[in-house]
Amino acid sequence: MAKRRILIIDSQEQDVQNLKEVLEDGGYQVAVAFSSHDGLRLAQDLFPEVVLLAIQSPGLNGLQILLDLKKRGTTRDLPVLILLEKFDEEYAAQGLQMGAADYLLKAASKDLLLRRVGVLARIRQQDRERRDVISRYKGFFDGEQHGLFLSSREGRFLDVNQNLIRLLGYGDRNELLEIDIENDLYFDPQDRQHFRETIESQGYVDNLKVNFKRKDGEKITMLLSGRLVRDEKGGIAGYEGYNVEVAEQPEAEQPLEEQPEEQRFLGRFLKHLVPKVLPFGAGFFSLMKMTELIAERYEKVERLGLGSFGEVWKVRDTEREGRAPYYVAKIPTSKKLNNQFRKEAAICRRLEGHPNSTKIIDVVEERGMVVLIQEFVEGPSLRELLEGPLEKNRKEKILLQLVDIVAYAHKHRIVHRDVKPENVVVRRDSVVKLLDYGVAKELKEKDISSTMVGSRPFMAPEQISGESQIASDVWALGIIMYAVYTGYLPFYHDNEKILMDLILTMEPRPPREVEPDIPVELEGIILKCLKKDPKERFAEAGMLKATIRETFPQF
């Protein structure tokens, strides 16, 4: 076990030596500073358990040192034991008012010195442990992507996480902690009554739909899971949600289904942490998980992504019997994006006849925003696959399917504008799915769209200039083919401006210089896709597909 560190700040060498010997005999590791500068530096560098500060020592401005220690964030919490040459009530009172933990005469006995230092060192250690516990608790509690709250038996919130604050539309934690759960949380008294009657009649609820009330009065539908807990006399003590025991209580009347390990860990974790973090909640209280429903139907399960346009969630259909399938919900950040989301839904529906397109399951509204419900595609992305070796025949299977769906889109006058490995998912059955038509555009009378969209390393020169067209997707396919066969991107730089300059001005290195085993004909196809002038590329992906089939019938 490492020795606990003590720092002595005193200009009197003999006094320092005497103190040092006593403390080292007591099992401490002692550091010494004879000046204000060295004392402040060592306090910051060593993080000692206790600082012994001689505030009456000549040549030291002891009270100023104490003030400086308490002003600095890194040393503010260090316990300081002020040492007095002789008792001076004014000095002692002033030191304690400035934040010293205790005072002691230098002439005090060895035993008294060791006892005082020992108590302060123990307090310091316990304070560190408490801070660590709070940090872990906050990280775990606020890291949970669903709404979580701890409540007392009196019906008050003890703590809420950030997601619940956001879901219910409150400004901050303190504002939500002030509400009365009975009157302010439920949308209608019948919702509260329905919850109570259900859990008290059968002993538990499992994904029960309950309507709650946001701060603005708007209804929000969520799922609650919990079980009834009775006290020793058989009375109702409260509810436990999320299959979590957060206090020592009798067993619930009926357990819920076995939960995943991470949920059981949450229970064990909070059970030990909560009484330390919230000592006023050490008696029974309820921990409940509130899972938001989209359009009162689709349960948010896991957030898959977050961007400037909105959130992407894995969701479960609560109205399907048996094992409900998972879908993907795309939720815009603003109602202003509703038209864009409707256009994306229309594009996806036009492409639904192709096996490599992603299907639209439903289009719903949530708080005035259009939400797309799409099929959930499980499998690694092409980007993930490119991080390891790909068998040759698998490369061709993936690329041909990708080219085929892009060609199908082009046939319907749709340009994707964001074809990249992250948007290509390969299922277990080797079926490729092209995702994210959020920036796709249907071309009608003209072939050029006038916005710069796409992902930089895969953007064609004309896209950088804000003039996307069908041939821009051909460029992106060429970049992907180059990466699949060589393991490298033809254009890349961490600096975005330099990257765009490279795309606009530099010719790609021939693939065979990077990977000599690439067939000459395939190199020619890739380089044709990467012509700076879109008129020199394949006009659309259908022509690229036909050329690949004709040149490599074995694919």
In short, what is this structure?
This protein has helices at 13-25, 36-46, 62-71, 89-97, 110-143, 162-168, 173-177, 181-185, 189-202, 261-277, 338-350, 382-386, 392-411, 461-464, 470-486, 496-505, 511-514, 520-529, 541-551, and strands at 5-9, 29-33, 50-54, 80-84, 102-105, 147-152, 157-160, 204-213, 219-230, 236-241, 285-294, 298-306, 310-317, 326-332, 360-366, 369-375, 414-415, 424-426, 432-434, 441-442. By secondary structure, it is of the alpha+beta class.
Indicate the CATH topology of the largest domain.
Transferase(Phosphotransferase), domain 1
Number of separate helices: 19
| CATH superfamily membership of the largest domain | Transferase(Phosphotransferase) domain 1
Main sheet: strands, sense, barrel:
11 strands, antiparallel
Helix and strand topology:
Layout: E1 5-9, H1 13-25, E2 29-33, H2 36-46, E3 50-54, H3 62-71, E4 80-84, H4 89-97, E5 102-105, H5 110-143, E6 147-152, E7 157-160, H6 162-168, H7 173-177, H8 181-185, H9 189-202, E8 204-213, E9 219-230, E10 236-241, H10 261-277, E11 285-294, E12 298-306, E13 310-317, E14 326-332, H11 338-350, E15 360-366, E16 369-375, H12 382-386, H13 392-411, E17 414-415, E18 424-426, E19 432-434, E20 441-442, H14 461-464, H15 470-486, H16 496-505, H17 511-514, H18 520-529, H19 541-551
Parallel strand pairs: 1-2, 1-3, 3-4, 4-5
Antiparallel strand pairs: 6-7, 6-11, 8-9, 9-10, 9-11, 11-12, 12-13, 13-14, 14-16, 15-16, 17-20, 18-19
Description:
The strands form 4 sheets. Strands 6, 7, 8, 9, 10, 11, 12, 13, 14, 15 and 16 form an 11-stranded antiparallel beta sheet that branches. This protein is flat. The chain starts with a strand and ends with a helix. α5 crosses α10, α13 runs antiparallel to α19 and α18 packs antiparallel against α19. The longest helix has 34 residues. β3, α3 and β4 form a beta-alpha-beta unit. With 555 residues, the chain is α+β, with helices and mostly antiparallel strands. The protein has 4 domains: 136 residues, Response regulator (Rossmann fold); 129 residues, PAS domain (Beta-Lactamase); 83 residues, Phosphorylase Kinase, domain 1, CATH 3.30.200; 170 residues, Transferase(Phosphotransferase), domain 1, CATH 1.10.510.10.
